[in-house]
Amino acid sequence: MAHVDNGRTRILDSAATALRQKGLAGAKLSEIAKGAGMLAPSIYHHFPSKDHLVEQVMMEGIYRNSRHIVARVEVLGPDAAPMVRLRAAIVAHIDFLLSGDDYSSAVARVFEDLPDEMRRRVLAAYSSFDNYWRDLIVAAQADGSASAALDATVVRKFLIAMLDSCSSWYRPGKLAPAQIAEQAADLLLHGFAGSRPGAM
Amino acid sequence: MAHVDNGRTRILDSAATALRQKGLAGAKLSEIAKGAGMLAPSIYHHFPSKDHLVEQVMMEGIYRNSRHIVARVEVLGPDAAPMVRLRAAIVAHIDFLLSGDDYSSAVARVFEDLPDEMRRRVLAAYSSFDNYWRDLIVAAQADGSASAALDATVVRKFLIAMLDSCSSWYRPGKLAPAQIAEQAADLLLHGFAGSRPGAM
DNA sequence: GTCTATAATCAGATAGAC
DNA sequence: GTCTATCTGATTATAGAC
């Protein structure tokens, strides 16, 4: 949405930033408009309501996030092992969130606060991406490289919640985003007590 | 807060429930009052503002959660191994969230949306509990039972985010809370790819 | 396509009776 | 300690000029 600079796109970008930083109720139309270089009523020339604007940001965030992760997994080719694909997805997810994409961070921040009907629609749009994660997890269990003692749904919920959290607490400093991504993958796949090559 | 049934306590209980279910902006004073068996203006006899009420719920949630977890860890005695203590804390945290305590779930739900100054105060109250987790993690690394290749702060942030998430997605059904707790501990400590006794 | 002015709504908060 | 009635302020949304 950043490749063209028309009014509609500037509003969406500004809304994504505001939603990420301040949440649904905290993102005022006046502030969103200011970020887009206009005043609040001008938004209504491009969107019929705040809800419609928010929903567009959600859909765009889901689309961007899923496109990025699927691309980073599928580039491995059809013969990549399930655990290699899962690890690539984990790393790609963190990389993308910490790359500063406001749309995907906005989804993680405000999803729970959406009005019921909108949340249902957003969830429906998210479902194919959710299934993609489920398939990665189930495939790793099916070929014996992952623990079959863990429930695939529980793993998926915990995994996504853990990854999504990083955009709320990460601050540039000691560790670079790529290092956070590696630590997340190591923690999720091998565990904090895990003894793997090179770890003590 | 549920052992006495005075007006103040009923309001706090109702506020915790509403905050957990609907978030900060979604929890209206009129609804909180209704849950306490009164009308909105009556709340002001017990609390000077909605913000004060919310802050009390946050403080109570932190207190309950930390008291429960510390008790479940310290009952192991002074000679328990660091990894045993850490696992007990993980299991206790999930158990408590899924036991239906609205106060601790409310904290996880609305913390990010709190006004800046209140969030600072709540964070300060949380810090000793946060340090408790940090000590559990560092102790496990220090005695060699946990990976020293992982950053202790990153592990703590990911771990707490993952555990906190369960109150938003768990629904009674196939798995009992105690089973979710065990799965969380296995996933965090041994990893999804981890091969431990009994796992495939 | 953006503006100024204003309406409409809603939720937090206050006043004062009982 | 709770109520009814009201006030205040903030925010979404509309009307209509430019």
From TrEMBL, chains A, B:
One Pfam family matching this protein: TetR_N
HTH tetR-type domain residues: 5-65
Keywords: DNA-binding, Transcription, Transcription regulation
Portion annotated as DNA-binding: 28-47
InterPro entries: Homeodomain-like_sf, HTH-type_TetR-like_transc_reg, HTH_TetR, KstR2_TetR_C, Tet_transcr_reg_TetR-rel_C_sf
Name listed for the protein in its UniProt record: TetR family transcriptional regulator
Organism: Sphingomonas bisphenolicum
